[in-house]
Amino acid sequence: MEIRNLGSSGLKISAIAYGNWLTHGSQVEEDAATACVRQALDEGITTFDTADVYANTAAESVLGRALTGERREGLEIFTKVYWPTGPGKHNDHGLSRKHIMESINASLTRLGTDYVDLYQAHRYDDETPLEETMEAFADVVRQGKALYIGVSEWRAEDIRAAHELARELKISLVSNQPQYSMLWRVIESEVVPRCEELGIGQIVWSPIAQGVLTGKYLPGQAPPEGSRATDEKGGANMIGRWMQDDVLERVQLLRPVAEEAGLTMAQLAVAWVLQNSNVSAAIIGASRPEQVTDNVKAAGVRLDEATLKAIDEAVGPIVERDPAQTRTPRRRDLA
């Protein structure tokens, strides 16, 4: 397993991180989820990413139980705060001091740990002063409940403002967690340059575009039974934007590119995001242990210029690049 620094910080993490967004506590039973975590550990993954909102807090609990007995110092455990949890009342979401302080305590209890290595603002909160949010995060750090602070899906200008406040408060804002894949490149023009300037690393989610870049979804055909595209608990909604024939046809053009590189299509997709020097880790999810084994083989792979050019030629017309796609829903719409 390749090990990278998280941004310019001293924290080292596995280049492949294991995430349990649409699986643990939702898509798969706990025994299967635990098997995937154990496989991730066997493959050298030390970095585990979750959030309080995943399966309405159940995912944190599943991950905590799956990691029981592991040496805590040998793991990097990340979680997040922002989206509605519990009954979703007016203070059950957002980045107010009240919600942050209550959420970190609940997350630590579910995860079965005294601290998380990284605590992330899951979206930007335009209804709470940024100063209030960052001061609350600073107190979480000073209380020893989190070692580092990160954000997720924030715009470049908001990342800069938060970074300035973090420096004033003498805490480490080290990461952003955006969606990033061959098909979704909205961070490249603004977020990545700003983060490179500030020493902030990307921990990217959906590098395989919800599974579309595995090539298993074929144009003009129904999705395979049991796949994410048939999951009514949230998976089908998330993958829906990619389930168009023009997209699926373009994705199939990647098959010979992967074969030429000696990789599976999933490995090619994960390796592609890891070529970006600002990417510290790519988050993978799994419902079966063998998916973990396949994906981790992308760690340490270097794609040559001919391969990168072939990828761009295959998917170019369907790539989303608009930086305005990085946005947060208004809190009033979440209640």
Descriptors for this entry?
eight-stranded parallel barrel; TIM Barrel; 10 strands; globular; single chain; 335 residues; alpha/beta
Task: Walk me through the topology.
Layout: E1 3-5, E2 12-14, E3 16-19, H1 30-42, E4 47-49, H2 58-66, E5 76-81, H3 97-111, E6 116-121, H4 130-142, E7 146-151, H5 156-169, E8 173-176, H6 191-198, E9 201-204, H7 235-239, H8 245-252, H9 255-261, H10 265-274, E10 279-284, H11 289-296, H12 305-315
Parallel strand pairs: 3-4, 3-10, 4-5, 5-6, 6-7, 7-8, 8-9, 9-10
Antiparallel strand pairs: 1-2
Question: What does this molecule look like?
Answer:
This protein is of the alpha/beta class and 335 residues long. It has one domain: TIM Barrel, CATH 3.20.20. It has twelve helices and ten strands. It has helices at residues 30-42, 58-66, 97-111, 130-142, 156-169, 191-198, 235-239, 245-252, 255-261, 265-274, 289-296, 305-315; strands at residues 3-5, 12-14, 16-19, 47-49, 76-81, 116-121, 146-151, 173-176, 201-204, 279-284. The strands form two sheets. The protein has an eight-stranded parallel β-barrel with strand order 3-4-5-6-7-8-9-10, surrounded by six helices. A two-stranded antiparallel ribbon has the order 1-2.
